[in-house]
Specification:
Order of helices and strands: EEEEEEEEEE
Strand order of the largest sheet: 2-10-9-4-5-6
Number of strands: 10
Structural class: mainly beta
Strand content: 35-45%
C-alpha cells in the first residue's frame, strides 16, 4: 500500500511563493507518473501538474501543467528520496486550496488513497 504525505503549505500573500513536498512510501514511486492535485472549497479536485517517471524531458520524460498554473508552478521529483515537489511562484488568491499528490491514473485521476493534503491559503 502506498502512503502519501504532503507538506509545505501555509498562508502567503498574493505574489508570494511556497514549495510543497510529497513523500511517498513504496517502490512504485519511481516507476509512476506523479501529479499534484488541488481542491478548492466547493470545487472538485483538479490535476494541476504531472511529471513522468523519467523527469528529464531530454531523456524522453514529460511534464504537464494546467493552464491556470502554467509559467508559475514547477513540478520536480527526486526518485532517490521518493519525493515529488511543487514550487509555486506568483501565487494568486485563486490558488487557495488543499493540495494533494498521487500517482496519476490513465484517466488523470489519483490512483491511490489520498493523503491528508497540505493547505495553501493566498491572501489578497
Amino acid at each position: 500500500q502506498v502512503q502519501l504525505v504532503e507538506s509545505g503549505g501555509g498562508l502567503v500573500q498574493a505574489g508570494g511563493s511556497l514549495r510543497l513536498s510529497c513523500a511517498a512510501s513504496g517502490s512504485i514511486f519511481r516507476f509512476s507518473t506523479m501529479g499534484w492535485y488541488r481542491q478548492a472549497p466547493g470545487k472538485q479536485r483538479e490535476l494541476v501538474a504531472r511529471i513522468s517517471m523519467v523527469a528529464r524531458i531530454s531523456s524522453g520524460g514529460s511534464i504537464n501543467y494546467a493552464d491556470s498554473v502554467q509559467g508559475r508552478f514547477t513540478i520536480s521529483r527526486d526518485n532517490a528520496k521518493n519525493t515529488v515537489y511543487l514550487q509555486m511562484n506568483s501565487l494568486k488568491p485563486e490558488d487557495t486550496a488543499v493540495y494533494y499528490c498521487n500517482v496519476v491514473g490513465a484517466d488523470g485521476s489519483g490512483w491511490y488513497p489520498w493523503g491528508q493534503g497540505t493547505r495553501v491559503t493566498v491572501s489578497s
